[in-house]
From TrEMBL:
Keywords: Cell membrane, Membrane, Transmembrane, Transmembrane helix. Pfam families: Virul_fac_BrkB. The chain crosses the membrane at residues 30-52, 92-111, 132-158, 178-199, 206-230, 242-263. This is Ribonuclease BN. It comes from the Bacteria. It is a multi-pass membrane protein. It comes from Mesorhizobium alhagi CCNWXJ12-2.
């Protein structure tokens, strides 16, 4: 009975604060900002990777970003992304690419704002610190994607060497497609921990982040599955929005993703508040 009461209090606190603090509007802001930041990030990362000789980066980056999206949503957007990324660029580290990095960092700032609200904290760090931190996140993500791109290029050779030396490992090697899904999922989990831990103001224990992140992962899986089924059976987006259908589908999908992400932060904050209240009254 006590656990049921605790769950009710935590959920009531999380959902109540989400509603009172304009969580629905923040999800819209986060979704649009994420979509606007996606292309600049991929342009910046691909241009930098091409300069460093990683010409296969564009294809790898598209897989890492979109492999975890439902196919009905990812397919039209990924085609446009590939069209953009395969354009030859000669403005590396000039104003165009630096602006792309800056606009990509706006997506990080939107994450920070939504998490500050969810965790109910007031931002005290300077604008310069926050912007530099956001740019560092963009650079780290670029470096991570670049490393994964190089790894996947050499993956078949590594797999053959491993099988040649260790016969027992062959059943576990799988395919490149399988490893892409595994790596993309690992990137999502690590990214969630990173943004929850470093972006919001204040300090949180690493273990305190786990409930909200698990909720986010489960919510994303459920939300994307339901939305994909809706698109398959009942959608009228194509007839309603014509050529804008793919963009509208992406916006709605990112809105769902943003709602779940913010609620994950709200859940963590509510659990922490509940545990602190229990500690004050002696259990």
């Amino acid at each position: 009975m006590r656990k049921i009461v605790a769950v009710r209090r935590v959920l009531s606190d999380a959902l109540g604060h989400f509603n009172d603090d304009d969580g629905w509007s923040m999800a819209s802001h986060l979704a649009i900002t994420a979509l606007m930041a996606l292309f600049p990030f991929l342009i910046f990362a691909t241009t930098l990777a091409s300069f460093l000789g990683a010409n296969a980066f564009a294809d790898t980056a598209v897989h890492l970003v979109f492999d975890t999206w439902p196919e009905q949503i990812a397919a039209p957007i990924s085609r446009e992304v590939i069209n953009v990324l395969t354009v030859q660029r000669t403005d590396l580290l000039t104003y165009g690419v630096l602006l792309a990095a800056f606009f990509a960092s706006n997506g990080i700032e939107a994450l920070r704002t939504s998490l500050n609200r969810a965790y109910r904290v007031t931002e005290t760090r300077s604008f310069i610190f926050r912007r530099v931190q956001s740019l560092v996140f963009v650079l780290i993500a670029t470096a991570g994607f670049l490393a994964i791109s190089v790894l996947l290029v050499f993956a078949p050779l590594i797999a053959r060497l491993a099988v040649a030396n260790f016969d027992w490992i062959e059943p576990y090697m799988g395919t490149i497609t399988l490893w892409r899904y595994v790596i993309a999922s690992a990137v999502i989990v690590l990214g969630l921990f990173a943004v929850h831990y470093w972006l919001p103001a204040g300090k949180r224990r690493f273990t305190a982040l786990v409930p909200g992140i698990i909720f986010t992962l489960v919510g994303w899986l459920a939300g994307s599955t339901i939305f994909a089924a809706y698109l398959d059976r009942f959608s009228s987006y194509v007839t309603t929005y014509a050529g804008l259908a793919s963009i509208m589908v992406a916006v709605v999908f990112l809105y769902i993703v943003s709602l779940v992400f913010i609620l994950g932060g709200e859940l963590n904050a509510s659990i922490s508040r509940y545990l602190e209240a229990r500690a004050r009254v002696g259990g």
